[in-house]
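Ticket #4471: complex job returned nothing on first submit. Input attached below:
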Amino acid sequence: MSPSAASPSPASPAPSTSTPPAALHLAVALDGTGWHPASWREPVARPREVFTAGYWADLVAEAERGLLDLVTIEDGLGPQSSHFLDPGERTDQVRGRLDAVLVAARIAPLTRHIGIVPTTVATHTEPFHISKAIATLDYVSSGRAGLRVQITARPNEAAHFGRRTIPRIEAYESPDTQELVTELFDEAADYVEVVRRLWDSWEDDAEIRDVATGRFVDRDKLHYIDFQGRRFSVKGPSITPRPPQGQPVVTALAHATVPYRLVARQADIGFVTPQDTDQARAIVAEIRAERLAAGRADEPLHIFGDLVVFLDDDPAEAAARRERLDALAGEPYTSDARIFTGTPAQLADLLQELAAAGLSGFRLRPAVAGHDLPAITRGLVPELQRRDAFRHAYEADTLRGLLGLARPANRYAAA
Amino acid sequence: MSKPLKQIHLAAHFPGVNNTTVWSDPRAGSHIEFSSFAHFARTAERAKFDFLFLAEGLRLREQGGHIYDLDVVGRPDTFTVLSALAAVTERLGLTGTINSTFNEPYEVARQFASLDHLSGGRAAWNVVTSWDAFTGENFRRGGFLPQEERYSRAKEFLATANELFDSWDGNEIVADQETGVFLRDAKAGAFVHSGQHFDIEGRFNVPRSPQGRPVIFQAGDSDEGREFAASSADAIFSRYADLDTGRAFYTDVKNRLARHGRRPDQLLVLPAATFVLGDTDEEARELAHDVRRQQVSGATALKHLEFVWNRDLSSYDPDGPLPDVDPDVSDTHISKGRAQVRMYRDPLAIAREWRERAEANNWSIRDLVIETGNRQNFIGTPETVARTINDYVQSDAADGFILVPHITPTGLDPFADKVVPLLQEQGVFRTDYEGTTLRDHLGLDAPA
Ligand SMILES: Cc1cc2nc3c(=O)[nH]c(=O)nc-3n(C[C@H](O)[C@H](O)[C@H](O)COP(=O)(O)O)c2cc1C
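Support reply: We reran it on our side without changes. The output follows.
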C-alpha cells in the first residue's frame, strides 16, 4: 500500500451532520491466502506458508496494527471446493486448512488487544469440547475469544464422521430442503445453548481454596446444565472454569430467515450480506423482530455487514486486479456477499452509508490477504479515523469491551 | 564389554486434578491461567526436557453423588492450551491426552495434524480409553461403549487416524504461482475406512505435518492396554516408577514388542514420577513427609478409603482404625470419573491387606493412606535424586520419567536448576536440543 492511500480523498468529504458519525466496528475474515480463489497466485500471497504459524501470526499482527475489533478464521470439515455441496477435483486453488481453534490459540499469546474468533461446525462436533476449547481460548487470550458457529449440509462431510447421513439438497425452495436447513440450524441453536450454559456452569467465585475445610471449590457454585434437546443431551458442569469474559462472543453468518433466527436467539454478532442499503435495512428489521420474538430484545446485538474487498489507491487498479484474478481463475468471482472494488475512501463512503441502515460494523473479506488486509489497516482505517468513525487506540482489553458488551451475569448464580 | 550409558528422557506433567498438587501451599498459583502453563513450559524447555504432558478428564469427579471438592477441580482444554504453548516455546514437545471414546477420528486427526503444523513438529497424543456412561453424559454419543470394547475402539480409532495422517504423502502441495498448480494430486487426502467402529470415507483436509504423525503414547495398564501399546504406541505413560515394579513392567512391555515385529527401542517406557528436593537427604525426607500430610488431610484419607470400600465412610474417624465392614463389591460405584479406582481390581483382598498392615503398624486411616498412597518417588539432595534417576534408567526400570511437581506452576524450577545440570555432567542428559521435532528428542524413527 503506498502512502498516498492514507491521504484524504477530496472526492468524498465526510458527511456533514451535526452529530458525529457513530464509530464503526471492523472485523476481517481470514481464509487461506484470501477470498479470491486465485489469490494465492499474487506475489504477496505466501501460498506455501498457509500451514505455518508464522503466516497466521503475521496476518493477525497486521489486523491488530489496524486496531480492528476482531478477526474470524474460516474452517470446514472437508476440503474447500468450488461447488456449494460437493467436493471438487480442482488442483489450481488452495486446498487444505488447519483447525481454526488451534490456529486461534496459536496466535492468541502473540497479540494483546484484538478479538480472535475461530469457526466451529455445530453439525458434527461436540458442544462440550467446543465450550471448553473457547473458554480456554478466552484464558490464553485474556478475554478476547469468540466463536463463529456454522452448520454444514454437505453429504461428503457427514461421511467423514459416519454418524449420520445428510440428504443431498436438490431444490433450494423445496419443503424437504427447508426442513433440513431448519433442523440443522435448530440443532446449532441447541449447540450454542449448551456451550453458553457450560460457560456459566461455574460461578465466577467457585474456586475458594479454603484451607480450613480442605475444600478447593464450593461445589454449590458448580451447576449441572441438564440440557435435553432433540438431538443430544448434555449433563455438565464444564471441566473448565468460567472464562474471563464470562460469555465469549458468539457470532454467526446468516443469509435468510432461518439463520437470522439463530442469530436472534443465540448470537452477539450476526454477519449478514446486504447488497445495498435498502436490503441492509430490511435484514436488520427482520433480525430485530426475531430478537424480540426470542425474548432477547433488551440484550445488545451487533449486526455486521460482510463485504469482499479489492482495495487500491486507484479504483481502476482495483478493478483490473479483480479482472486479472478472475482470468487466472478461469471464471468471474462471485460471492454471497457484495464485492467491492475501489479505494479506501470509496469503501469508507459505502460503509458509512450502509451503517446508516442499522449495521453497527463490518466484516471485510480481503480478496487477497497479503494485499487487501494491509489496505484495510493502512488505508481504510486512517480514512475512517479522519472521519471520526473509527477508534484511534484500543479502548478495552477484552473483546466484549471493544464491542461495548457488558460482562454478563451468570444465569445460575443465586440472585 | 559394559553397556553404553542410556540417555535419559525427561518430561514435565502439569499438575492436575489429583492430590499430587498441594494447592494449599502459599506458593501455589493458578492451575488455569495461561501464565501458569507458560511458566511451566518455559521451565521445562529451559531444562531441555523432551516434552510437556497434559492429562485429561471429561467430567468433574464425584463421590457419593457430589462433585469431589478436596483436590484441584477444573482444567483447560488440552488442544487449545498446547497450541498456545507452541507460541511461547520453540522445541519442547507437546503431549496431550485425548480420549478415543468421546471423540471422532476425523476431528482428532485434524487437531493433531494442525498442532503438529503449528508447533513445527512437536505434537504427541496420549490415547486413553475411559468409556464410562458417567463421562458419556456430557456427549452427544452418551455412555454407549461396553468396557470390554474400549481397546477395540481405541485401536481402530488410532488406525483410522493413522490412515488420515497418511492420506497425504507430503509432496502434494506444489503452489507454483507461475503455472497455477497448487495441488499435484486432485485426490490428496482421499481415504476409505470400513470397520467395526468406524465406517467413514472422503478427503482429509490437513496436509501432511512435519512429523507425519504425532508421537503416540498409551497409558492403560491392563493386559489389553499393554498389548495396544506394544502394537501401536511410541511410548507408555506408566505409573510404575519404583525400581522393582518399574523393572517388571519394563521387561513385560518390552518383551511384547517382538510379537508385533518391533524392536525394544521403538517403545519408550516413561513412568510418572514425583520428587522432593532438600539440602540434605534428611531434610528432603522431612519435607516429603510434610507434603504427604498436606496431600492427605483427614477428609482426603476417608475419601481415599472409599475408593476401595465403595461405601460412605464419613462417620469414621480418620485418626482411628480402619472400618471392619467389608467393601461393597456391587456394580454401583460411589466414586465416579476416576481412573485410579480401577487400580483396585480386587477390593476385598486390598481391604484385608490394608487392615492387616494398619494393625501391624498401629496406623490410623490417615497413616494408612499416607503410607500406601502415592509416595514421592525421588527424595533427597539434588545429587541423590540425579543418581537415583540415572540408576533407575540404567537398570531398565524406565527410559526416563514424566515428572509431576507438587507446586503449580513453579514446582519444576528447582529440578531444572539443580538436578538437570548434574545429569548433564554425568553425560546422561542432553545439554541442548539436537533436533527440532519431538521425534528427534525421543530418538524415534520417522513414520513410514
Ligand atoms: C498412568 C495412567 C494415566 C492415565 N491417565 C488418564 C487420563 O489422563 N485421562 C483419562 O481419561 N484416562 C487416563 N487413564 C485411564 C486409561 O485410559 C484407561 O481408561 C484405564 O487405565 C483403564 O484401562 P486399563 O484397564 O487398560 O488400565 C490413565 C491410566 C493410567 C494407568
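Chain B has two domains: 9-278+381-442, 285-372. Closing as resolved unless it happens again.
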